[in-house]
């Protein structure tokens, strides 16, 4: 029951549409401008880099906050598969809140920033891999000038890096398989939410904004 309360609270916090509220505070509905997305990239494009960074920080924090707090409150070593599932489910709930916010008719962002926050909150088993994924994001983002290409690189590298770190740390598969499963799921969610971007990339029509360095 305690775990369910944490998961619901994480969803409700993750569902807070900071990009939408920032737009409203500036007198616009961000969903009607730019790409129509409520994430940091579109906020930065429409309202300027400063507001994009504000949105980025808030979207990261709403993933990090409940995940890190749940780790302190619920998790006691040694961790078995049940403990991992409970902790990871809290983080996953925050990401699902961002993707499908109840406050906006379940039409949310693309989940990259909130996933980064969640990964940072699961130290070190997701924190180290997300650092590698962010490096991949940076390389691809600046090589191509396309934000979505960097985000897709992050989505692919993250679960691969989780697997590599899992092997390095010598974790037992019977106990730590939820780490691998949830990292793959988070990567897939990002990829699915970028399906329109993928189509535009394939047709050479994706928007490139080299001055915008914020994940969606």
Explain how this protein is built.
By secondary structure, this protein is mainly alpha-helical. The chain has one domain. It has helices spanning 2-14, 18-25, 40-47, 49-74, 81-99, 112-121, 127-144, 147-169, 173-193, 195-202. Helix 5 (81-99) runs antiparallel to helix 6. Residues 209-216 have low confidence and may be disordered.
Shape: globular
Name the helicity range: over 70%
Largest sheet: none
Radius of gyration: 17 Å
How many discrete structural domains? Answer: 1
The arrangement of helices and strands along the chain is HHHHHHHHHH
By secondary-structure content and strand pairing, the structural class works out as mainly alpha
Task: Provide tags for this entry.
71% helix; mainly alpha; 216 residues; single chain
Annotate the secondary structure layout:
Elements: H1 2-14, H2 18-25, H3 40-47, H4 49-74, H5 81-99, H6 112-121, H7 127-144, H8 147-169, H9 173-193, H10 195-202
Helix pairs in contact: 1-4, 1-5, 3-4, 4-5, 4-6, 5-6, 5-9, 6-7, 7-8, 8-9
